[in-house]
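Moderator note: this is an archived Q&A kept for reference. The question asked for a predicted structure of one protein chain; the sequence and the answer are reproduced below.
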Amino acid sequence: MTMFSFTLSVPLRSAPVGTATHRGTATRKVDHRTRVAAQRRERMRARLLESALAVFAEKGVGASVIQDVIAAAGVSQGTFYNYFRTNDELLHAVASELSNELIESIEQAVNVHADPAMRIGTGVRLYLLRGRAFPLFARFVVRTGVHIANPHNLIYRYLPPHLEAGFASGRFDRVPVEVALDLITGQALLGLARMLAEDTARDYPERVVVALLRALGLARREAEKIGFAPLTPIAMPADTLVARATARLQAVAR
């Protein structure tokens, strides 16, 4: 028998029937488990943030709130530390998500206006009205104060271009951008604090906007036209942090 004939006589081995299908099924099972685990982890993180928002709004940032958050969320200490290591890390996470959710929705709402003064006036008005509609949001912002104005806050991405447009067009008196930023954010913070502390007039947010625009350089009549212009409220989706946390508090109260 020649080598050639021997080679031809050896039967070719084929892959076992169903091997490819079995591997594909196994891969899908792994992908499904990974996806489910990620979803479970995201739900737990959301639960911790909802509880932390309520605790910070009540107690402020002067003391550690970790044990209070663990109790409010109904989780173990080990579970908590799988997500956050320190009080400051937790505060940063809550502040960033809470503020950025709102700033994103406000930015979308104000960009329909060509006038930078209208964009800024509408944005501040929407911010204050959100605080009036959701006291939990207002309490958190007032209690945490400047902590919410961290470098990751989207206000520092979106607000400067509106200010620069106002300076360039002559709508605003030119001042350093950081001065104008502090003027706007400081007024918004103090406005929320006053609405929490006392029963303010119904048009208080509009009056704040008028005063703010006049400080930026607009005449009274022009500022009032913007401050009291018809306004379309921004939606509050049920999956936002403040809506979820408010719903959790209401459920506990019941």
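Archived answer notes: The chain has twelve helices and no strands.
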